[in-house]
Amino acid sequence: MKTKEEQLKIYSAYLPYGLKFISNRDSVDITNAWTLVGLKIDNSYPHKPTLLSERSDYKNVINIWSPTAKPILYDLSYLTKEELIKAGFNDHIDFLTHEREHWIKVYGFEKYISKLPYGHFQYLVSNHFNIFNLDESEYINKANLKQ
């Protein structure tokens, strides 16, 4: 389980890319998702970071520490060679796909991710892949959502 500070750092990496959250744990429907548009730190004590989010009809603030507010991400296992080639990548393809589990065992997850070229890292973040190794209980797998 990530600490609140770690979660805040992780979520901020996705800020430019429209990361979506679902705040109702019983709902796994993409139509109930909120788009992350900013982070706010409350100046009162104790300081409470919150996610600034919006839906098409109105703006709202979601408490980042609510156990029901989870980001919608793809697990790295959904990344394919074909997708990377289509995106214009011709290097690190095996490292990111079928050899991934081997290299994670060799390096550990954080070191594995730190070895990626910036363009690959940016592609994974912009396409909402779980590259920060969030536990399955800390995010909603986009592949499992109802459209």
TrEMBL record:
Q: Which domain of life is it from?
A: Bacteria
Q: What is this protein called?
A: Uncharacterized protein
